[in-house]
Each structure stands twice: as structure tokens, then as C-alpha cells.
Known about the structure:
Elements: H1 3-16, E1 29-30, H2 33-42, E2 50-54, H3 60-68, E3 71-75, H4 79-88, E4 95-98, H5 107-111, E5 120-124, H6 130-138, E6 146-152, H7 153-159, H8 168-174, E7 177-185, E8 190-191, E9 198-205, H9 216-226, H10 234-242, H11 246-255, H12 269-281
Parallel strand pairs: 2-3, 2-5, 3-4, 5-6
Antiparallel strand pairs: 1-8, 6-9, 7-9
Helix pairs in contact: 9-10, 10-11
Amino acid sequence: MQTESLLTRTKKLLKAYDLHARKGLAQHFLVDGGVVKQILAAADLSPSDTVIEVGSGLGVLTKELVRGVGRVIAIELDHRLAGLLKEKMASSDNLAVINEDVLKTDPAQLLTPLGVSDYKVVANLPYYITGAVIRHFLEASLKPRLMVLMVQREVAKQITAKPGEMSLLSVSVQLYGAPKIAAKVPARAFYPAPDVDSAVLRIDVYPQPKVAVNNVDEFFRLVKAGFSANRKQLANSLANGLVLPKTEVLPFLEKAGIDPKRRAETLTIEEWVKLLNVYREQGGYDNH
């Protein structure tokens, strides 16, 4: 499968069905067969797998998925593309096409009636919902075992960052799984080409969060507070984010063994959990 031939076929298909990439949905169609192979390789697919594909588009990746796995559930928001996929792949009895907003679908409701509890997610995501979709699956009652996602390259770098360059996004992903960049993807791999390069991101999801967290909402409220004042010392950013005097913040940082002069991006997930536990011990979130 050559890039040029896939690009030509994509253009012909769009013309034949009077379709076009919708800017409002940030649609960019994958036209590089080599990248398709990289996605499939990163997903470690087997005939017994169940895959939820998000953003199936014209079905370039869908077609390969149905050949290699036991079941594919394709979720596509654009009703015209969903209709085209159903028409083109009507003979694939291991494919279900769902014309819905992925953020309004519950994986458990899709899979439990099928007797499935183990699944993978493969997605070519519109960049504006990347973070929301990742958290949607990682915080679902039925989490995937593996996620392979096409994301903006800079976002992939953020997600895979180490302490020293952490962000709210990297903490929110790395609590639940181990992310790594599986491949770099140039903008020309898409039609129309986006303004930025992309990356294939693989997230191996932990059976349980990396560190035990009693209250995930409180954990992320604290982390968000820590990142509320970019690049400032932790004592100042926490005081800002928690709307507390700095004099009240310093004691629980000290008790957690964290230097108040450090910055949020240097903390490990274990340190955030320790900080949360100390904060709660001292009455944090009782009145906030």
C-alpha cells in the first residue's frame, strides 16, 4: 500500500460520496499506509482481541482491524462517515459501527452485554478532544488493557514527560498507565495535512492505578491547584490554587517532606499522593 495510492483513493472516495474534511470536527484522513502498519504493530493485535476504534473516518484503519481481530466496535461522530462505513463494510460480521459521541458512550455498556471485559482502544483522535478521550477511558469503570492513539506530537511529549517536565496531563495519564511514543508521524501523512506533526502514542494501562488513591477527584483537584501558577514555587502555586494563605500551605508541604521551593512539574505521582494524604489529615477539603 503506497502513500500516493491511498491518497488518491481517499480523494476519489470523498468526491464520490460528496464528502469533505469538516474543520469543525478537526478531520484529517490518514493517507500513509506505512503509518497504518505502525499503528497496528503498536497495538499488538491478535485474533482474540476486541477493539474499540474511535474516529474511524473513511475506514482505512477499520478495514485492517477487522482482518486481524475478533471484534471491532467503531465509534464515529460524523453521521455521514458512519453511514459510509456501514455501507462499505456491511459484509464484515465482526464490526459494529456506532454513530455517537465517544465521550457519551460507556465502554461497560458496550462490552458487558457481549461478555467482554478485556479490550483495546485504537484511535485517530481529533486533537481538540485528545485529553478528554484519554481520561474518559482511563477513568471508566471498565478500562482498556491498551490504548494506541494518534495524537499531536507535542501532546505525546507532554504525556510521556518525566518528573522535571510533568504537567496536569502527564500526571492524569501516568497515574493509570505507562505511555510511550511508538512512532513519529509527519503532517503529510494526512489529507488535508494538519499544521502540526503527530505521533502514535501507546499507553499500557495498569490493572490498578500506579499508586492507590482513595479519592480521584480530590487527587486531581490538588494536582490542578499545584499547576495553577505555571513555573512558580509549589508553596505559591498551591496557595493560589487552593485559595489559602501561604502560611497554611507550608506546614503540610513540610510534613509531606516536599521542599516548598520545588515546582509542580518536578513532583512524582507518589509525591502528589503523599501530599494529598497529608492535606486530608490536616482537614483539607473539609471546607474547600
